[in-house]
Specification:
The chain contains 3 helices and 11 strands; from the N terminus they run E-H-E-E-E-E-H-E-H-E-E-E-E-E. It has 177 residues and is an alpha+beta fold. Bound molecules: zinc ion.
Length: 177
């Protein structure tokens, strides 16, 4: 059975706004939240940080900035909102993890500092023919047994987004907020 993953409206808005800011370059950051009985809850999203590297087909976050911000949010949330995994955008190319993406996900799992042996790994994507359109796909995967497996992404009930799940496990979010 597919893992379920929930996302808070504010976190989704932050993620999509950051992705939109970089029409032709990749961006990304970290997914923060907690694991509940019914699946992971993404409660906050971190952006790239000031020293991030935004390429046409690659992205490296400002790791030090992310660590500082992550720790601050963890403290201020009474140690409930912690690191869950990474996200980045594919402004063209679709929601498919590259070889480097798989490597990054495994590196996060193996690095004890992240405390995420089965991290979430999300890709926000757009197809080239949709570059100027509003629609983004958000695919949230989770690394299990060395493989990236799709989760079923569920906006929290109060979201009110137009949500359609395709057979490929890609949730299409036509967020107009
Ligand atoms: Zn990628």
């Amino acid at each position: 059975m597919r893992d379920v993953c929930w996302i808070e409206p504010g976190a989704l808005t932050t993620l999509l706004a950051e992705a939109r800011r970089w029409l032709l370059r990749e961006t990304g950051g970290a997914l923060l939240g907690w694991r509940g009985e019914e699946g992971a809850v993404i409660a906050a999203v971190l952006g790239p940080g000031p020293e991030a590297n935004h390429g046409l087909r690659h992205f490296e976050p400002d790791v030090q900035w992310q660590q500082r911000e992550g720790e601050r949010i963890y403290r201020e949330s009474g140690r409930t909102i912690a690191y869950l995994g990474d996200w980045h955008s594919h402004p063209y190319g679709g929601p498919y993890p590259s070889r480097q993406d798989r490597k990054t996900a495994r590196m996060i799992a193996d690095d004890r500092a992240f405390r995420a042996p089965e991290p979430l790994y999300a890709i926000a994507s757009k197809h080239w023919y949709q570059l100027r359109g509003p629609g983004w796909h958000l695919r949230v995967m989770r690394l299990r047994g060395g493989r990236l497996l799709d989760t079923s992404l569920q906006p929290l009930p109060e979201l009110g987004l137009d949500r359609r799940e395709s057979q490929s496990g890609v949730t299409q979010l036509d967020a107009t907020t």
